[in-house]
Amino acid sequence: xxxxxxxxxLAAATMxxxxxxxxxxxxxxxxxxxxxxxxxxxxxxxxxxxxxxxALENVSPGAQPDCSHGPTSWPxxxxxxxxxxxxxxxxxxxxxxxxxxSGPGFTLAHEARGADSQGSFGPRTKTVLIQTGxxxxxxxxxxxxxxxxxxxxxxxxxxxxxxxxxxGRATDFRGVNTQEYVNRIKPVVDYVRYYAPNARIVxxxxxxMNAPGQQTWCVDVLGxxxxxxxxxxxxxxxxxxxxxxxxxxxxxxxxxxxxxxxVTAGHGLCxxxxxxxxxxxxxxxxxxxxxxxxxxxxxxxxxxLQRLIAG
Length: 311
Fold this sequence. Notes:
Largest sheet: 5 strands, parallel
Shape: globular
Oligomer: single chain
Radius of gyration: 19 Å
Strand order of the largest sheet: 2-1-3-4-7
Strand content: 5-15%
Helix content: 25-40%
Number of helices: 11
């Protein structure tokens, strides 16, 4: 076994153990017969969403984890549709920048522990929705999604082709695979299953960014033009491999997968009717966080999730 392979295996085991220990140190969930909240949401910025001002504030050096939630995020719209918004039967622990295990902000274990401290897990818990993975470091480098988008996708000189991952300019999509995703998320799944035995656990996928087979990345700007990266293989491979890893991990762990890509198909970046925000683009969401869902896109996801829960 090569040294790098040994290192990756040890790092994966260490991160999984750290997540398990963090969860084990959390207070026990309510043992009351009526304990738990009906709907619990854990996730990252694609879950919490919000406006561009909050997103810019979140990237400043030394910024604290931002766990505020956009007024039209899909968890908010879902809770409103279910009639539990503003009640004690719903909790959204999602945070911008959150990851499965990589940090430096909140990890999924931190969010689960925070939900537990609010009495979220118990026999009454019906649904736990989890959307995470894109903010992690994978493979041979420590590059995160934000760096990939800002320093690689927008690099008009070198581009952001598949070689960018090996060069350390983009998240190493080669390290995104089903078993590694399972290793990272399983401690939280096991924890939820133990303390919320009746809950339906659903991995929520990410929306469509680019049309299938497309190798360019495009972002609308100000409603008058677009930034187009003709060599965007690294970013596109990251999205595609994450989708496969989430789907297959859900199957291996015996939980559900919600296909957000399917319900947003045809409405990716720079499409005729985008459901993702560009950069100050009035066609989609003027003040929306770039590359994140518009209020309409989140509404479509929320409606589809409501149908899934009801079914």
